[in-house]
Design goal:
mainly alpha
Length: 71
């Protein structure tokens, strides 16, 4: 599907601008759409870390909305 096809392009965007949290947020959304929750969690955490204390609150909201970690 579309989210699956978007991930390689989003990863390239993240590599091209490594301090930009938005590609990581979009990667997280795409992975979440594919039910890859563990990887989505990691991508959202990366977006939060890159966003710093004044980052977009949507990053934290997306992470909080994920199901609990089942490890």
């Amino acid at each position: 599907g579309l989210p699956e096809r978007a991930i390689p392009y989003l990863r390239r965007a993240a590599a091209a601008d490594p301090n930009n949290p938005y590609p990581w947020f979009c990667i997280g959304q795409s992975l979440e759409d594919r039910q890859n929750i563990q990887s989505a969690r990691a991508a959202y955490q990366k977006a939060i870390a890159l966003g710093g204390p004044n980052g977009n609150p949507a990053f934290q909201q997306a992470l909080a909305a994920l199901p609990p970690d089942s490890r």
